[in-house]
Design brief:
15 strands, Rossmann fold, four-stranded parallel sheet, alpha/beta
């Protein structure tokens, strides 16, 4: 009887292993201390909690409990493998179609979803160890990853790629990532004099960042000098460093640019709240109007969007170099894509990035970030177009609850006039210029004011609202707007 039972158990074990292999991502081991070289597993590495990961095949049903993992999986082309995300996952917009899970909830909700992988980071293990243990006890593979330093980013991406069978895409994306950063560094490398920057990591105790942090590397790539270089971490392994108001004010005359990150790590206030802090009126950056806020998602989060954070810092430090518009100074007909690019660059408008995890859960009037059907987050001009649209500067079309930017649509004089009017501060003039075709203008009062203010000229007394404008005409109109301020 006992021998029959053994044979049955052996057969049952073999069947279960076969089923596991067919289902995809299956843990051959999930415990620490396993010698991967002896398992013969297709996917083998050590995660950042010390687990020896050994999986038979790439994963197809992933729950990601960290927004950076989610974002990077989409960039690697593995977004379709996600069956669950954390509610802080708000980029790319496609994340909003995926069910939400939370490591603060009952782990049974995740177990019931039957994922073949749960992606976490060490912070989660430290915060809710019982949650992690429950997932492991249910024999669901769990992998913890987080690159503590910028230099760890490539290895981190490589591990995500191994888990999702996207190594080729990862190599391409990392090459593009490096190319984008190097292009910025090349532009700023030989600029003199170099600009000193203070980077505020948290408003609480006015902390900054350590030399090995993502933000510190961004400063270096952007061609800036970190005036708080060498600041000591608040604890071992942390990217946040102590500094304080006293040391900041001691360096007041040397700080050319002051940047405060905003997000989960530093809810903080707005630019005004920074400017009115005691003693801050002595800081050179405050006196020169060079205080900026940057979204931590693009400067401190380990994602491919980091290069955009580098670009923004470089724009703050060296606006005339980074926002060069010479490529647009021509007499070719301008489309809405051109208008967005020229506007954001010429006026040095910071790119718009959402940070609140509640953004998509709130009733939003007007354009919804990232929801254009014809300009996705993969578009090279996405940031410029979204910034212009979110500011209400350029009109868009809405059809059956779908939004279209129509980037190839040519820009008319009245469309340009609307952008200038929204950007500026205009009031009606007592003396009215006679405009012979004013009745043809959709926004007649707006056109009247712009002509009276001298921003737009007339052609034989006509405004010509539907005439297509050139890129040079956009540049000239924005220059006139700047002259008024």
């Amino acid at each position: 009887m006992r021998d029959h039972s053994k044979r049955y158990l052996v057969l049952l074990t073999a069947v279960l292993l076969l089923i596991g292999t067919l289902l995809g991502c299956t843990a051959r081991t999930g415990t620490s201390g396993v010698n991967n070289q002896q398992t013969g597993a297709a996917i083998q590495f050590t995660d950042d909690d010390g687990r020896e990961i050994a999986l038979d095949a790439p994963c197809k049903r992933i729950i990601s409990l960290y927004s950076a993992h989610t974002e990077n999986l989409f960039t690697l082309g593995a977004g379709d493998s996600l069956i669950g995300v954390h509610d802080t996952s708000i980029y790319p917009p496609e994340t909003q179609k995926i069910p939400v899970y939370d490591y603060m909830d009952d782990p049974e909700t995740i177990i019931a979803a039957e994922p073949d992988l749960v992606l976490i980071r060490p912070f989660i293990t430290r915060k809710v160890p019982q949650f992690v243990q429950a997932i492991e006890k249910a024999s669901i593979p769990i992998v913890s990853l987080y690159p503590e330093k910028f230099d760890d980013f490539d290895e981190y991406i490589h591990k995500l790629a191994l888990l999702t069978d996207t190594e080729d895409v990862a190599a391409e994306q990392l090459a593009r990532f490096d190319k984008n950063i190097n292009a910025i560094a090349t532009l700023t490398r030989n600029i003199t004099p170099k600009q000193n920057i203070f980077f505020e990591a948290t408003e609480v105790n006015l902390r900054t960042v350590t030399d090995k942090s993502m933000a510190a590397h961004a400063i270096a790539f952007a061609g800036g000098i970190n005036i708080a270089a060498g600041a000591k971490p608040i604890e071992g392994g942390s990217s946040i460093a102590s500094f304080g108001a006293e040391r900041i004010l001691a360096l007041a005359e040397q700080i050319d640019v002051y940047v405060s990150q905003r997000g989960a790590m530093n809810a903080g206030g707005n630019l005004h709240s920074i400017l009115i802090r005691p003693g801050y009126d002595t800081i050179k950056a405050v006196q020169d109007g060079r205080v900026y806020v940057i979204n931590e998602k693009i400067i401190s989060s380990p994602t491919f969007r980091f290069y955009k954070g580098v670009r923004e810092l470089a724009r703050y430090l060296y606006p005339n170099v980074m926002d060069d518009i010479s490529a647009y100074q021509n007499d070719e007909a301008a489309d809405k894509r051109d208008l967005a690019n020229i506007m954001v660059r010429q006026l040095h408008i910071p790119i718009y990035v959402i940070s609140s995890s509640k953004y998509y859960q709130t009733d939003t009037k007007g354009h919804i970030y990232g929801m254009f059907n014809d300009v996705t987050w993969l578009d090279d001009d996405f940031d410029y177009i979204e910034t212009a649209a979110m500011g209400g500067y350029i009109p868009y079309v809405e059809v059956d609850d779908q939004q279209f930017f129509e980037p190839d649509t040519l820009v008319t004089r009245e469309m340009l006039g609307r952008a200038v009017f929204v950007l500026g501060s205009f009031t009606s003039q007592k003396q009215k210029t006679v405009i012979n075709d004013l009745e043809q203008c959709y926004k007649a009062n707006m056109v009247q004011i712009l002509v009276d203010e001298g921003v737009f000229s007339l052609n034989d007394g006509r405004f010509e609202p539907q005439r297509t404008v050139t890129c040079n005409e956009i540049v000239d109109a924005l220059n006139k707007l700047g002259e008024r301020e």
